[in-house]
Amino acid sequence: MTSDFSSPASDLTTAQPSLSETELAPPAAETPFGARTDFNQLQTAAAAIRQELGRIIVGQQELIELLLTAILANGHVLLEGVPGVAKTLTAKLLARTLDIPFSRIQFTPDLMPSDVLGTSIYRPNKAEFEFRPGPIFASVVLIDEINRAPAKTQSALFEVMEEHHVTQDGVTYAMQEPFMVLATQNPVEQEGTYRLPEAQLDRFLFKIHIGYPSTEEEVSILQGHHAGRGSAILSAVQAVLTAEQVAQLRQQVQQQHVEPKLLEYIARIVGQTRAHKSLYLGASPRASLALLNGAKALAALRGRDFVTPEDVQYLAPAVLRHRILLTPEREMEGTTPDEVVKLILQQIEVPR
């Protein structure tokens, strides 16, 4: 196991100027319908994070937008892609842009739950047990190759990912806020891996596929490498937001206005996954909540104080693809979850 336990993000960079506290005004307690919410500060912060990530990451604009959406929606993210497409690098860079504690855990087949959550150690001088927190006690936790650990260790994440606290020996330990898990997995390599249980997959707000770069983007990567850019610039990525600022932005997002017909639209989309003939398992109500929270955050990122059906449609594949199971027949035919989600979106009337 490789563990950079609770190394503050400030340890990862040499200079980390962040947005001034005064740049983020406290959000209003309540935003009545018709009153405009000012998302200029949120967009300024998002643009600064995009700029910092853009120093290293070539292209991948959709990936970056979904990651920012997940931060604002208080959700965890599963990054899936073949080796070499910068899954881990992207997660590390995102952590650098937040001035909050960061931890990285390399999941391996011999990893035990106590290696992740922590363990109690007996102190003879005090004649008592003392809890020693594990690497999960950080604000941004990068779990590399999450499907390398057996189900027992993966199950240890259930409580902390959903409830943001850990219970050991009858004592509950709360996590620092914000708390976000960024996990990576390789969809191709099967040897020595364990399929993530559905209960754990359901705890990820998004599952994001990271594909290969285009030819132009790959040329740009080669040019940067040939020019000696890379590791030197990596250390120059600076923190943009503090924990308090992230909390303020999340409060703003929660005040987004959502029309009742959009709530019904979300419920119908998720409900259709439970009745679709191509699916063996549909999505849970947690998926509805994820779609709602994600749509509110995406709308704010795009400068709107209201959610549109397009926000819901854009996020539906990332929210649903890991929460549904294809029937064996569809799986043998090569149908993908994204194709089924697309069919469902086409079958449901869009509210206007």
Word description of this protein:
The protein is of the alpha/beta class and 352 residues long. It has 15 helices and 14 strands. The protein has helices at 40-54, 61-72, 87-96, 113-117, 151-155, 157-163, 198-201, 215-226, 231-234, 243-254, 260-273, 285-301, 309-320, 328-333, 337-347, and strands at 7-8, 77-80, 98-99, 101-106, 118-123, 128-133, 140-144, 165-168, 171-174, 180-185, 206-209, 241-242, 279-281, 325-326. The longest helix is centred in the C-terminal third of the chain and has 17 residues, at 285-301.
Short description:
The protein is built from 15 helices and 14 strands. The protein has helices spanning 40-54, 61-72, 87-96, 113-117, 151-155, 157-163, 198-201, 215-226, 231-234, 243-254, 260-273, 285-301, 309-320, 328-333, 337-347, and strands at residues 7-8, 77-80, 98-99, 101-106, 118-123, 128-133, 140-144, 165-168, 171-174, 180-185, 206-209, 241-242, 279-281, 325-326.
